[in-house]
Design a protein that fits this description.
The structure holds 2 protein chains of 2 kinds.
Chain A (H helix, E strand, L loop, with lengths): L1 E8 L4 H14 L3 E6 L9 E9 L14 E4 L19 E5 L4 H8 L4 E5 L1 H9 L7 H10 L8 H26 L1 E3 L1
Parallel strand pairs in A: 1-4, 4-5, 5-6
Antiparallel strand pairs in A: 1-3, 2-3, 6-7
Helix pairs in contact in A: 1-5, 3-5, 4-5
Chain B lengths: L1 E5 H11 L4 E4 L6 H12 L6 E4 L3 H13 L5 E4 L1 H6 L1 H9 L5 E6 L13 H4 L7 E4 L3 H16 L7 E6 L7 E5 L3 H4 L26 H33 L7 E4 L6 E5 L2 H15 L4 E6 L1 E3 L3 H8 L4 E6 L9 H10 L7 E5 L9 H12 L6 E3 L6 H18 L2
The chains are: A alpha/beta, B alpha/beta.
Amino acid sequence: MLEIRFHGRGGQGAVTSAELIATAAIGKGKFAQAFPSFGPERRGAPVVAFCRVDDKKILIRAKVYEPDVVVILDPGLLTLINPVEGLKDNGIIIINTRKSYEEIMDSCHFSCRVGIVNADQIAREELGRVIVNTTMLGAVMKATGLLEVDDIREAMLNRFGPKLGEKNMKALARAYNELTIKE
Amino acid sequence: MKVLETGNHLVALAVRAAGVEVVPAYPITPQTQVVEKIADLIDQGKMDAEYIPVESEHSACAALIAASLTGVRAFSATSSHGLAYMHEMLHFAAGLRTPVVMVNVNRSLGPGWNIWCDHQDSISARDTGWMQVYVSSHQETVDTVIQAFRIAEDHDVMLPIMVNLDAFVISHTYMDAIVPEPEEVSEFLPRYRPLWALDTRLPVTHGSVVYPSEFSETRQSMQQSQTRAIGVIKEAATRFGELFGRHHGDMVDYYRLDDAEYVIVSMGSLAAETMISIDAMREKGIKVGLLRVRFFRPFPVAELQELCRGRKSILVIDRNYSYGLAGVLYTELKAALYGLSDTPVRNLIVGLGGRDVSNELIAEKAMESFEGKLGEITWGDTQITKAHVVTRELLERFQELYNKK
């Protein structure tokens, strides 16, 4: 089972990220679960969302405490929370940032694998606005090998319609290609 | 069609598939998505039903009853304080023998104000005459809502059903499930055929005074219907399985129980989590199985007596509490087993107000219980924190204030 935790701010679409990955996974015949941190949410406040994908029926109902993957939609959160809390030993944190790996490590000192992609810039160029929840999915797919880019197209087009859906797909594909991973 | 949806949205899609004609509703967290989605479906012309926005849950239930009395299939959804607010009308729905279906998204009752999951709301509505079923998965939610109409509307039953699903863990979690189309459901669940209705061709009065000389019989007949419902519930589950290939148990469901020396009994989503605990304990050589109570009313007395026979120890997990006594599933199970064996039955209270319950915690507490290390009733996940200490200090300050002359 693969467990992913998304960190964003209320309104940035972390739950949609989790939902889209899960939808694409069930389209590939897998079983999936996506859920927000339960409770009232406020726009702008730090939020988390979770996603589980497995080859068999998922029975677990509790929160994700030891994710395989942590995704940071908003780089401002890196110093507000402990983003790698519970992250498995062979896990990876994937960060939307314009900083270099070295600059990130100056302030964060991660001992896990770190994936970096400038999703803000990609989203600005491809979507015309800095909403990175779909863009970052490309990075997640690349880092995990869970899905190919085309596997998520149907879910994306259903969600956003053909025009906006294809723009999101383009941003996603760029993030897939532009992700860099440091061991 | 297989979809990825929240438990709440799946309820709405199942209600559409069931051909519901009237939906009176009042929103409340964590149920709001149910009635929101139904309103959407009606607005988009995807569902042919009358949506009645009302001003309170009490009115929602009153309108639900009234709609049903006119001879149509009616549905509503609520939660927690909403269910408590309609409590008077719950008795009306059962007493008037309206076969309505209502989803209750299980949430705690305040204060302290809390929107998360436990079973206190529906357990507090135990004695209203409603049937109650608790589901543990998204697919079971869909399939149980559809089956509920068939059970309630059976002319041998004619009682309302409450379908209970856990707040957030099911209501707000997206999972994959298959949702049938209305035409696929119509063979299993034909159009509602009332036993009687408010009909100008045969005008009769309902809900008038019933004197002591006639009252007890009306109540006895409700019990007789609850008893007859057991056969109807089993038949509905079997027929649904034949038509759709899915079976989630009937009065109860169980897992790895055949050769089990030890049994964990629970309801709702905790039961799914418990299956993981069972696998982990089995790997260590402990012969343990799960017995999941689906129908809490009618209570599965015969099934529990049969399936609990000859076990070494039983642990009942409750996500509710009857203050002054114990967890309610625990006391009900003990009553069902009274005089049949001396197997120890113990009670674990966990997950109140939405506290997350992990399979590791369940396995740990179950082992302690089976080894005789736990008392009769154990609060399994309580821990005094700084917040509680602050309250205590505040109380001391009040006492200082009042002790001053």
